[in-house]
Amino acid sequence: MSEILTFKxxxxxYGEKIVLERVSLSIxxxxxxxxVGPSGAGKSTFLRLALGQEAPTRGQVLLDGKALLPQCDPDxxxxxxxxxxxxxxxxxxxxxxxxxxxxxxFLGRLYGKARRDAIQTATDMLTAVGLQHNLNIYPSAxxxxxxxxxxxxxALVKHPRVLLLxxxxxxxxxxxRLEMHDLILRLWAQHGLTILMVTHDLQEAFKxxxxxxxxxxxxxxxxxxxxYGSGIISDVTPDKTKPVPLDVTTLLLPSSDEV
Length: 259
Ligand SMILES: Nc1ncnc2c1ncn2[C@@H]1O[C@H](COP(=O)(O)OP(=O)(O)OP(=O)(O)O)[C@@H](O)[C@H]1O
What we know:
Strand order of the largest sheet: 6-7-8-3-9-10
InterPro entries: AAA+_ATPase (IPR003593), ABC_SmlMolc_Importer (IPR050093), ABC_transporter-like_ATP-bd (IPR003439), ABC_transporter-like_CS (IPR017871), P-loop_NTPase (IPR027417)
Protein name: ABC transporter ATP-binding protein
Organism: Asticcacaulis currens
Bound molecules: adenosine-5'-triphosphate
Keywords: ATP-binding, Nucleotide-binding, Transport
Structural class: alpha/beta
Number of helices: 6
Oligomer: single chain
Domain ABC transporter: 5-242
CATH topology of the largest domain: Rossmann fold
Order of helices and strands: EEEHEEEHHHEHEHEE
Helix content: 25-40%
CATH architecture of the largest domain: 3-Layer(aba) Sandwich
Shape: globular
């Protein structure tokens, strides 16, 4: 499998605070990578780097071997835990808007056949996530799970190659979470996506991902906690032939060459 995203010796610093240090990682096209780690370890920062929303202080992020442009582009789509969708637009308008801006960046509006085609594409995408009966509903009238389905449709309609998920199921009930797991695995396979997902839920990470990466500090200075940043302390390939063990924390213990 070819590499799609590469992080080369990344450092992220905010003033004196070092958030990430010496992070190097290659992500193969088609993989499902989950990033786990304690709160504040820099997981979302990782996603912002992959999205191009933020540039590293040092090091490089490459997409297909080329430096990432400091902006979002159609190659990457993103879904956050909440507030990914526009509350004043219906489900259909939310998904359509992305297509209109992709095809008509200045006006953000399509006309005639181009608009009819875009409406069909948006409807198909909403059908793929199970929202075909809610096209004209506003997000406030959708359940949390349905809002996340809408956010996924909005991200996928532009056919990104990389889908970035920041705790996408974190606010959902356990039963809805399981439905969303099935949905995301189906879309991952159908669309040939590469997925990078941040989650606090280790069971979720091991169930969904083909690779689980833990970020945490490799070294601590008790007098100056901001002095050292997080790095990759373990990089695990879950065994998909076996059920996820109840206690997966032991699988994420740092290997001696990673500390
Ligand atoms: N723009 C910024 N300026 C200063 N510090 C920042 C900025 N953005 C993030 N940080 C700090 O970087 C650290 C990592 O933040 P990040 O949101 O990436 O962590 P996280 O692992 O995703 O945390 P959580 O699991 O709680 O969401 C935090 O200490 C945060 O306060």
